[in-house]
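User: Here's a chain of 377 residues. Predict its fold as tokens.
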Amino acid sequence: MSARRDATALAIRDALVRHVRAYGAQPSTARITLLHEVHETWRPVLCRAPGGEPLHRDDLAVYRELARSRALHAFPFADFRAGFEVAHTAGLRACLAVAEPGESVQPVAFTAWGVRELPRVLDVVTESYLDVHRSRGNAPAARALLLDALLAGRAPGPESDAGHLVVVFRPRERGAAVAAGTTAAVERLLGERSGLLWRGGPATGELLVTVPVESTLQRAREVARDLAVDLAGAWRSRLHAAEAFGASPAEVPAALREARRTLRLVTALPDAGDRPYREDDLLVELAVARQPDVRLRLTRLLEPLDRGPDLRRTLESLLACGLDRQRTAAALHLHRRSLAYRLGRIRELTGLDPATPHGIQVLRAALCAARLDALPE
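Assistant: Prediction complete.
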């Protein structure tokens, strides 16, 4: 392989240009520089791989410097990382090309060495690339990259053990038109709070925010609650919100999955408040969601309500108004007697009295079950 160093470097360069979008988009004059970089990064491989030695600390310096250069020139991080995988594959092909017929020891040894060492190289280039962006503060490109790192379970800053509260927001009226200036207002609001990382917003219909736990988890939750109120004003919409805590960067991906799972339950609530919910707040709804047979039986309880005008909507409004009949009547533009008549019909048709704790609890669970079935997974 050492004897074919130049040919191997050329093969790697050509593979990068063919298979990695950002390299292929570079002008042809840049390919001379790229070939030189391939030579520099391939040199430690040729030095250590034949003997099965791990890359030394000094060997990794060339990868750090290349990552720094790519970050400073705004080279797309995903393409940069992908380039190392493409280079490894092209190098393995070169190894196979020079192997004698029937010889498998060298290709197998090189493959095993690459499986062991490539993750180390990717860790080094990722950290070096991130370091450049950490120094650039809250610029959009830096923020996006740091959030990508966090959602992949990596620390977005030196505080590698710090936890993060993951909060997901969605408007209650999905698909509603976004007023002019709304996105800019949301961006300004988020930018005023230090330490937040975010993605999405009014234009995408979902906003993901991570809140660093700098002192206590309770304080981070207070920040999330205040943010929910302020965002609703900037977004000009009532919002559904859910949160989950990752005690370390490695736990953040699981926290995001939990927050989105919780948000689906929140969306099904007929009486969701204007705050971020936790999974522990919705244990009954979570149990219903996990039991298809129970969900079906609850949903069927509501079927008789379709015989009367707006009975289901009346029940939803009653819950949304905190069981306050005066507020419910006003929300539905009804006289209180008309509301009482409708609630009486709900009792007659379902056998459940919305004026009793048991009746309203079961009816609420039935509404949640019906809404869950209408939501995408």
